Amino acid sequence: MAVSSPDRRRNWLRGHRKQIIGDYLAEARAALAAAAAAPLDGEGGEHSAATAALGLVEAVLEMSPRMEAALELRARSLLALRRYRAVADMLRDYIPSCTKPCSADDTSSSSSSSSSCSSASRTDLLSPARDRSDAASAASRFLCCFDISDLKHRVLAGFSKNTSADTQWRYLVLGQACFHLGLMEDAAALLQTGRRLASAAFRRESVCWSEDSFSPSNLTANAISAPASRRASKSGAAGSEAESVSQLLAHVKLLLRRRAAAVAALDADLPAEAVRHFSKVLDARRGVLPHPFATACLVGRAEALRSSGRAADAIADCNRALALDPAFIPALRSRADLLESVGALSDCLRDLEHLKLLYDAALRDGKLPGPTWRPQGGVRFSEIAGAHRALTPRIQQLRGRVASGEACSVDYYALLGVRRGCTRSELERAHLLLTLKLRPDRCASFAERLELVDEHRDLEAVRDQARMSALSLYRMLQKGYSFIMSVVQDEEAAERQRAKDAAAATAAAAAAAAAAALAREQEETAAVPEKARISSVSVPSTNVQVQVTQAAAMPTAAMAAAAAMGSPVFQGVFCRDMAVVGTLLSRGGFDRPIPVKCEAMSC
Fold this sequence. Notes:
Elements: H1 5-15, H2 17-37, H3 48-63, H4 68-80, H5 84-90, H6 110-117, H7 148-159, H8 168-180, H9 184-205, H10 216-225, H11 228-235, H12 239-267, H13 271-282, H14 291-307, H15 311-324, H16 329-341, H17 345-365, H18 384-403, H19 412-416, H20 424-437, H21 440-443, H22 459-527, E1 536-538, E2 544-547, H23 556-565, E3 570-573, H24 579-588, E4 596-600
Parallel strand pairs: 3-4
Antiparallel strand pairs: 1-2, 2-4
Helix pairs in contact: 2-3, 2-4, 3-4, 4-8, 5-8, 7-9, 8-9, 9-12, 12-13, 12-14, 13-14, 14-15, 14-16, 15-16, 15-22, 16-17, 17-18, 20-22
């Protein structure tokens, strides 16, 4: 009986299956090497060579689903295509901080649920203490740091169950994917473990080498002279990859150290120092900063700015965090608290309603928004029910306050960071600094320094969201500046009026004092006897003193004018020219007394 063509083709494929798989893998490796040397293609940033390699590997996995070399090439192809979430989903069992329970209640121990929810190849890398929650530190759990040594022990404990040297690539590839996804502690543990295992494998292989084989010129010859299977295993662990992994690990450690310093400063009630360390992480020009890690750092800096009394800057950081991740629960909580503290009740109510929708979705789906390995700032699913119960009466209370008209009573002094009764210069300085920092066209440029991984939001969506929220905050600042400036102008006008009133009171007091002095002078003049008002001249032998007092009575109006002007006392030297005396008498007038003191000199 003749064999049909489909059966013949099937038999031919079954006989040449190994050869086909080898050819596909070789072509996939060559395509990956070409993708590593070529730039990104188009706006999507994808390599055509990496896409071709992924297609070849998928064809191999259809024929052999558990082939280790094909799995490695698939993970590296996804990494070259920047599909980090696919890598994490593919190797999620090796992520140290990945939750193990499959049910909605994540407070159960991982040891009791590993038998029902995990497969035989899943490694137990979590301790039951990870899922314990502390109510006192629930608000700031997203700032807690992991113990790197603990993560190392977990990874090594998991790796001890599979001692095959072919699985070393999992730690290196997954470590790079975790870094781009913002899982810095997991990335540090995985990269350190992969590098340590690669060094141990290199030591085992170099036992039979001579001393001359360790020179750089002979390393390539040793790799070429090695068997094909060993050469294939070395292709993924080339020298360039080891160097890049070392640089990436150093960058991860630097970011973790800076964030740990910022968290320690915030715990020590040093908000200015915490802001400085968070700014070092966010404003760094060197290295790559994944946007999930930047989102958590923005929320941490917002908490530090709120502690230092800079409400506008704190709201701006929350706006940036929500532009990167609209479903980030800690950012929504922080911005709602900030808006309520400055009296913006309408905006606060909108954020709380958005937060309530996220809680409802989490309770409906039985998990937090996003993948199970995605960091949510320390928020755990076990807290959602209690937070939802506490949020409902708060929303009702805010609705009542808004209905009563309290939505317009915004504390613009707290928003701009100035004291009540501030001067014009203080207000203008604070407004100028906030305007320069929080302009809508500048607030959208922060996303250019970050790496946006394969999420549903692209750079343009982030810019639009950041620009919209920054424009709302900018309008609120301008309104607050106008309100406080009107108050300052009213205070300045009142101060000028008070100064005028004080000057008028001083002039009135001076006039009253002058009138009292005039009255006293009139009384003294009336009390002087008639004989004392007769002019008398007393001329000594050497010193002649002439006192002339006119006896005519002075009218009351003339005396008052003379007292107000202060009649001068003329002093001079008597000489032979009598015209001077006549001039003095003509200036003084004959209707009022002129006190004249003359000193005579001997001729």
